[in-house]
Amino acid sequence: xxxxxxxxxxxxxxxxxKRRRMNLGAFADFCIDLTQPLVPQGPFDVIVHKLSDxxxxxEHDSQSQHEIPPLQSYVSTHPSTVLLxxxxxxxxxxxxxxxxxxxxxxxxSLRDWRICSPPYLEIHSASDLxxxxxxxxxxxxxxxxSQFPLLLNxxxxxxxxxxxxxxxxxxxxxxxxxxxxxGDKHFCVERPSLKNFPxxxxxxKTIFFNSHQVSKPESSSDLTMPCLPPPSSxxxxxxxxxxxxxxxxxLFGVDVILxxxxxxLTVIDINIFPGYEGVPQFFSSLLSHIESVLxxxxxxxxxxxxxxxxxxxxxxxxxxx
Length: 321
Prior knowledge:
Residues 10-89 form the Inositol-tetrakisphosphate 1-kinase N-terminal domain. By secondary structure, the protein is of the alpha/beta class. It folds into two domains: 10-84, 3-Layer(aba) Sandwich (Rossmann fold); 92-276, D-amino Acid Aminotransferase, Chain A, domain 1 (2-Layer Sandwich). 29% of the residues lie in helices and 18% in strands. The chain is built from ten helices and twelve strands. The strands form three sheets. It has a five-stranded mixed beta sheet. A four-stranded antiparallel beta sheet has the order 5-8-6-7, with helices on both faces.
């Protein structure tokens, strides 16, 4: 029997930085150059991309602004090409407000699993700042408030820069669980996180920190401390299933913590196509997911048998698509 990958071409549309982080150097020949015409580089059955990076860069970089339309045009004229993930699904998570609204709805859809997200407040513009203290209290938020920086009292509200989201900080034993999703598989990696803080306002100044630095695998700082037991694997699986449906995505990450008082699984962030650090099975899982996507596509629309055969391997630099 033929593998679904037989005769198929997969292109990677990722930044140099992303390729380096994911050790995809061996696949440089299969990376799409958005500065060149796409049709001669194709045809592509699947394009694995993180165009969200390009979209963010395009806000202040004219070069990036010219890279998005060619791919959109290619996909519109090649409707059988599968984008991992669909652009509309990916771009919705670039809107922090939309992302937090998705998380806030998990409390209802996953009530049986005692999964929730912390109370939060949307700050759309500087004009909201005059009434922000009253709004914080009315919405049931409590200090500390997490917004990168960590706001410890009402006076520190002057340190925020709208538009942004304020989220009640939940004490979680300084452990962050990063859930990496690849299609129907997911992997949970434990990382260091912020230590516990007394609830309610305190006299300390705002704490400025880089969330990526605090939660790096090798991270250690005076903001971190030791830990709680891992979350229920069944609850995490239920969360992943629900988010796959809600997001319409296959490549994403979810940051979850365990409330030290209630042990409630608490969702604090959703990430577009994360780095999958600490997941050695990522690439084999990605290939498995691509195969399943192409298999479904083939069953719906059988492919002509005259297509030149292309091989796909996961080993060393000679790997080919």
